[in-house]
Structure formats: C-alpha cells, structure tokens
Write a structure and sequence with these properties.
The structure holds 2 protein chains of 2 kinds. By secondary structure, chain A is of the alpha/beta class. Helix content of chain A is 33%, strand content 17%. The N and C termini of chain A lie close together (8 Å). In chain A, 40% of the residues are buried. The chains are: A alpha/beta, B mainly beta. Strand 7 of chain A pairs parallel with strand 7 of chain B.
Amino acid sequence: MTGVQKILWEVAGAALLVFAGLVLMENRATAPPADTPFRPTFALPDAEGRLRTTEEFSGKHLLVFFGFTNCPDVCPMTLIEVAQVMDGLGGQADLVQPLLISIDPTRDRGLELAEYTAAFHPSILGLAGDEVQTRAAAGSFMSARTIPARRTVTLWHTAHHST
Amino acid sequence: MKYLLTALLLSLSATPVLACETVQLGSLEISEAWSRASIGMARPGAFYITIRNTGATDDALAGIATPVSGKPMLHETVVKDGVASMPHAPAIPVPADSTVQLEPGGYHGMLMGLTQVLKEGETFPVTLKFREAGDVTVPVAIRGMGAKDAGCVDKKD
C-alpha cells in the first residue's frame, strides 16, 4: 500500500469515507434555521494552487461532490448529473457553484484536475488539498449525514483498485 | 468469423456505428459496446456492453481482455445506504433467456493501465470470455466524456 492509499483507508475507516454526493449547502448569507447543525467548511487549493474557502462563495449555493478522478463509473456519472443540473438551472446557474472536492488529492493534483472537471462542465471547480485540509473538509461535511431529506450520494473510495 | 475478428483487432478506427450492431456468439447477442474518452492514460477507462442470452443455458462473463488496458477488470457499482462501492466481480452471470447490461451505475469493465488515449469517435477491440460460449471480440465505440449510453438509435432491451 502506498502512503496515499493508507491515508485514504484511514479516512475511509474513520468516517465512512466519503460522501460524494450532492449536498446542497445553504449559503451563509441566509441565516440557517436554528435546528440545522450542518455547517460545512473547507479551505482547499484549486488546481492552480490557490486556496479557496467557504467564505469566498458566500451568497451562492454550493453543490458539493466528494470524489476522485480515478474512478471510471460512478464519478463520471455524478459529474454528468452535476453538469445536467447546471444546464437545467439556466439563468440561475450563477447562484450555484459546483465543487469537486478530491479525496485522492495527491494523485488528482497531478492529473490535470481542472481539465477533468471542465470536460464535464466549465462551472465545476476541482479542489485538492493536503491530508489535513481534506480531512477537515470531509469531517465538516460528514455531519450532513445526520440531516434527513437531503439528497446525498456517498462514494466509497475503492483505493485498492488503483495500483 | 475468424476473419472478422482479425479485422477488428487490426482496426482501431472502425466507425462508431459498429457498437450498435449485434455480434452473435452461439445463443448470445452482444451489442452496445462503448466506453468514454479519456484525458491521457493515467486514469482507468470504463467499458459497457449489452449481452442477451436467447438460449436455454446459463452463461457468465468471466473476464475481458483488450490491448488498450494492461489490467482490465469487471466491477459492479453497488449503492447501499447511500454509499457506493465498486467491488470486483469475478464473473457476471448471463442467465438463460435474459439480458444483462454493463451500464453506468451497475456492472462495468474497469480498464486499468491504459496503453493508449481513448479518443472520442474511435473504437478499440475487447475480447469477452464467456464460461460456456467461449471468446468473442467486439469493437467498442469511444464516446464523449459526458456520454451515458452507447448512443444507439434503436436501443435493444
């Protein structure tokens, strides 16, 4: 097992790994309902290395997908869905920022992450941090699992497929 | 048939329409073989196909081989409790009188270790290894990265 794979399995074991899915996050401009403990945050670099944070997208809805680019079936499917959602939004698409947060960041950084996300939809922003940043982001989103009635798709990272 | 297979193996630029044609192997009707374009060769590719068993004997797809992948495998995407996993499938059952589809979100081929870039509009050969019916090589159409199916006009069940 490589170091990356170990890290990924740790993440997987610690937190049911990842949830890839589509989490429509309430923007910070609107006060969240008092009974909503879901306050995901992230500070992760994009493909060019610029740090992007939750605050930057204040006022927008975030469509977040935790995934990785090294999976041929379910990850493209999800990104295709994201692209369809963005196209379907038409003039309201500006209100939504789709994000792919990599759970295999070391490898994804070296794999033209921006080119990959753009191939599905130009609006999708790929983020790939280090282990600490990724854990922190994933951990904050994990709380969403306790919130009912949100459409989430979870991705189990099959790191052992990737040698 | 041998001639056809040889021709397929030699040709990586056959027309995409081939994917929509049906290849017959005994009582198996094989169609809609497709994949998605790749960016480079670092990520694994996917492989999808439809297999219809019109016979009375159960069969199974036990493996695949292709020159474009150093390690092609069969996998199944299983979603349970909102968690998607992709376990390795030792074989994909093709029961008598039924149709099995390798399709997005279900059974699929995972083409590890690509040996070439998969370019939209081109094709590559994949050899299917069935337990009962034996081997057959079919052309696989490479579709765009956003493709969800083989894109055949007359889609078979």
